[in-house]
Design a protein that fits this description.
InterPro entries: Bact_OuterMem_StrucFunc, OMP_bac, OmpA-like, OmpA-like_sf. It is found in: Cell outer membrane. This is OmpA family protein. The protein contains six helices and 28 strands. The two termini are about 45 Å apart. Strand 27 and strand 28 form a beta hairpin. The strands form five sheets. It has a 16-stranded mixed sheet that branches.
Length: about 525
């Protein structure tokens, strides 16, 4: 990684020479300090608004709180687009408590890859709603990210009570040159509508054009399913992947479509007709029962049966089909449960996403709806829930936030948030036991998933509050303690109120803000 420059005069010299440092706003020279004894550079010059003690006093553009550590406040103090294609995010982390030191690096690390040594602010990112992707800091050769390094930048392991530090990340700018974006961290709920400045940032930061770097992006997959469980659709903003239930389409061990399949085929053909598809792939899949000698030919015959039915129903020419059978080799879910096996018995139809039909704007409901609460118990302690908001984001996305409070007199664990019926959709525990339903359309929306490439294929993480790894104690509540959780969903364009089911709490009809 290029060295960061400590003094303004040195910075200007390097910037003029075009060496590895992004342009910056001029800042007043920092107070004289003694550099730490290290061969690596320490921190950059503090921003012009820093106090004599080095505290960053810039006004916050947005803020959130850590779900796991209630005294950790997270504020965006800088969000600058550089060269029209890069983004510099600066995040102030504050310890608002009075008696405990807070460790920050573990909380700010990217949870979608091995953290290695926990000392990086690698989890700072933005949500590119237009491209349906989650953007993370660039990765250069030899380090996890173009971001703050606890050791190199002399940040220390802890934040003292009443003190703050400012960390940064350099990442791709969201597509479409938006004026605002959603800033995401592993710490707490996403921060919405954060303004992006096209002015040079305050401080010095490595230039991603000065050395080879790899953009790290996570595709955001938004699943939904019909209430009759006949099909499940995954939308990544580019393609639709429609998983048709083999239990509805076929009799056991058969490849002849049932009478019930007629309406499912018609609905799927209508989607293909409305899409720009010239090639549609149809893939048959089985669960782990039986063996390859049975599953492989059966899954192919079923794919071919679906292909034939769809081809006959299309109202336009120019669509070519590709049918394949994968047997049990590509499960979407664990085969350790009946529900997982049921979902794995499917025929998957994949094609470019249809363009949405023009819709009249949906009237949004102003905040202030009442009665969005529920109660349950955990280990005998009363647990309360309150929906904080269901907000519509660009790109057909929605953000659900809700608060959980231990109203009892003893510490307790509340684990129902990660005990979803189809928990096996996620490899890691997260607050995935949440469903949003469009009652009128008879369609249920599942929490979004972040698709992460691996050496063996892909992995999936819930686009919601994480409760595993370093955040494993997130579901542990002291008496009177409140934590705020979140989930990303697809939202239907025409709805203004949706039914929300959070863990064991009662169903709520929540207005979209």
């Amino acid at each position: 990684m290029p060295s960061r420059i400590l003094t303004l005069s040195a910075l200007l010299t390097f910037a003029a020479a075009g060496c590895g440092v992004l342009p910056m706003q001029e800042a007043a020279p920092p107070p004289a300090t003694t550099a730490p004894a290290s061969s690596a550079p320490a921190t950059s010059a503090p921003p012009a608004t820093a106090t004599a003690s080095g505290q960053d006093t810039r006004p916050a553009l947005a803020e959130t709180r850590s779900t796991m550590t209630e005294n950790l406040k997270v504020e965006v103090v800088g969000l600058n687009r550089v060269k029209g294609k890069h983004l510099i995010a600066q995040i102030r982390l504050s310890n608002t408590g009075t008696d405990k030191h807070l460790s920050w690096a573990g909380e700010m690390g990217d949870r979608t890859r091995p953290l290695g040594e926990i000392k990086w602010a690698s989890g700072i990112g933005v949500l590119d709603a237009q491209a349906r992707t989650w953007l993370l800091p660039y990765q250069p050769a030899g380090s996890p990210c173009l971001c703050s390094d606890q050791d190199r930048d002399g940040l220390g392991h802890f934040i003292d009570p009443g003190q703050s530090i400012t960390v940064y990340a350099v990442l791709p700018a969201p597509s479409g040159n938006p004026a605002t974006t959603t800033v995401v961290t592993p710490v707490g709920p996403p921060m919405l509508n954060v303004p992006i400045s096209d002015e040079a940032p305050t401080g010095d930061f490595p230039d991603p054009d000065a050395e080879p770097v790899t953009p790290l992006t996570r595709r955001l997959i938004l699943p939904s399913e019909s209430l009759d469980k006949s099909e499940e659709t995954a939308d990544d903003g580019k393609d639709l992947q429609v998983n048709l239930s083999s239990d509805v389409l076929f009799a056991v061990d058969k490849a002849t479509l049932t009478p019930e399949a007629k309406s499912i085929m018609a609905r799927t053909a209508k989607l293909i007709d409305a899409s720009p598809a010239t090639v549609v792939t149809v893939a048959g899949h089985a669960d782990s029962s039986g063996n390859d000698a049975i599953n492989d030919p059966l899954s192919l015959r079923r794919a071919q049966a679906v292909q034939d039915a769809l081809s006959a129903l299309l109202s336009r020419d120019g669509v070519r089909f590709q049918a394949k059978g994968y047997g049990s080799r590509r499960p979407l879910y664990s085969n350790d449960s009946d529900e997982g096996k049921r979902r794995n018995r499917r025929v998957t139809v994949t094609f470019p996403k249809p363009q949405p039909a023009p819709q009249e704007p949906v009237a949004t409901t102003s905040p202030g709806a009442t009665g969005l609460t529920g109660t349950t118990k955990a280990d005998g302690q009363p647990i309360a829930m309150e929906v904080a908001g269901l907000r519509r984001l660009p790109g057909g996305l929605g953000l659900l936030t809700y608060k959980i409070t231990n109203e009892g007199s003893a510490e307790t664990w509340f684990r129902d948030l990660h005990l979803a019926q189809d928990w096996e959709a996620y490899k890691y525990q997260a607050a995935s036991n949440v469903r949003v339903t469009d009652v009128a359309a008879r369609r249920q929306y599942l929490p979004g998933r972040l698709e992460v490439p691996t050496d063996d294929g892909v992995d999936f993480y819930c686009a919601c509050t994480d409760v595993s790894g370093v955040r494993i104690s997130t579901e542990k509540f002291a008496p009177g303690q409140t934590r705020e959780f979140w989930n990303l969903f697809a939202l239907p364009d025409t709805a203004d109120t949706l039914k929300v089911k959070i863990g064991p709490f009662r169903d709520l009809h929540v207005p979209i803000q």
